[in-house]
Amino acid sequence: MKPITPALPSFIILDDYLKDWLREDIGRGDRTTQSLLIQDITSGLAQWTVKENGIIAGLPIARRVFQLLNEKVSFTTLVNEGEYCQSGTAIAKIEGSLDALLTGERVALNLAMRLSGIATLTRKYVEKIADLPSSFVDTRKTTPGLRILEKYATQVGGAINHRMGLDDAVMIKDNHIVAAGGIGKAITSIRQRIPYPLTIEVETESLEQVEEALKYQAEIIMLDNMKPNMMREAVEIIRQHNNKVKIEASGNVTLETIRTIAETGVDYISSSAPITQSKWLDLSMKIN
């Protein structure tokens, strides 16, 4: 598997999200915990355990959730971020104010379970092509409000992030091509207006479109929903014309098809599946 170093988003950005999610859950107050405990008085110890096999992601974010409620909470990770764990493995130990532990439990667990599920499925895709030159890439098909974390989770699983938003790069898709009146017109118009050093990627569905994208010097060409034979031919055409052009494959990417796609020689394979099709990895927290 190609090594990926996940970039944890800055808490300068994340804190606003985490506070909003805590406010959503707490509302006007944690009625149960506040009725049982005096704030910041009773301390306790809790353990997080994984209840099914999978890749762990989101522990630093879970730590931050508890520490936003009480900065003195100690959150000790027992496994590494991105580590594959067997069911029953203890993954974290938390010590501190019991009211903070109980109030933050659900938000922290929800985030870690969601991100661990994404990382787990991502790793399966990455491992399918680990011995081939192609890299696995995520997409912008993310949950509104969670993109920054969901894309972090795909990195934990071993994927490379595609653009985070519309301002990262130019991607001319089928509807843009129709609106512009063709690939050539779209590239010509956009290249006159975008700042340096943004790249231009063009989505193509036929060999004719591939040749047009090459003619107008697209830096990245996406082969969208092409059959393997056509994809191989497209890769050959691109390589012969300009070996510096990067090639991305997209569409109909599954665990069953990804290796065949990689064997065509593309540089990148993009799929939304790890985010849109993953299930949460079951984690639990028990107070000792």
Structural description of this entry:
GO terms for molecular function: nicotinate-nucleotide diphosphorylase (carboxylating) activity. One of its GO terms (biological process) is quinolinate catabolic process. The chain starts with 10 loop residues before the first helix and ends with a strand. Helix 8 (207-215) runs parallel beside helix 9 (228-241). The strands form three sheets. It has a six-stranded parallel sheet. A four-stranded antiparallel sheet has the order 3-5-1-12, with helices on one face. With 288 residues, the chain is of the alpha/beta class. The chain contains eleven helices and twelve strands.
Task: Give the topology, please.
Elements: H1 11-26, H2 31-36, E1 43-50, E2 54-55, H3 59-69, E3 74-77, E4 84-85, E5 90-97, H4 98-128, E6 135-137, H5 147-157, E7 170-172, H6 174-180, H7 183-191, E8 200-204, H8 207-215, E9 220-224, H9 228-241, E10 246-250, H10 258-262, E11 268-270, H11 273-276, E12 283-287
Parallel strand pairs: 6-11, 7-8, 8-9, 9-10, 10-11
Antiparallel strand pairs: 1-5, 1-12, 2-4, 3-5
Helix pairs in contact: 1-4, 3-4, 4-5, 8-9
Protein name: Probable nicotinate-nucleotide pyrophosphorylase [carboxylating]
Pfam family, one: QRPTase_N
Family: Belongs to the NadC/ModD family.
Short description:
With 288 residues, the protein is an alpha/beta fold.
The low-confidence parts are none
Shape: elongated
How many helices? The count is 11
* Alpha-beta classification: alpha/beta
Q: In percent terms, what proportion of residues is strand?
A: 15-25%
Instruction: Characterize the main sheet.
Output: 6 strands, parallel
Q: Write out the strand line-up for the largest beta sheet, numbering strands in chain order.
A: 6-11-10-9-8-7
End-to-end gap: 38 Å
Radius of gyration: 23 Å
**DSSP strand count:** 12
Order of helices and strands: HHEEHEEEHEHEHHEHEHEHEHE
Mean pLDDT: 96
Helix content: 40-55%
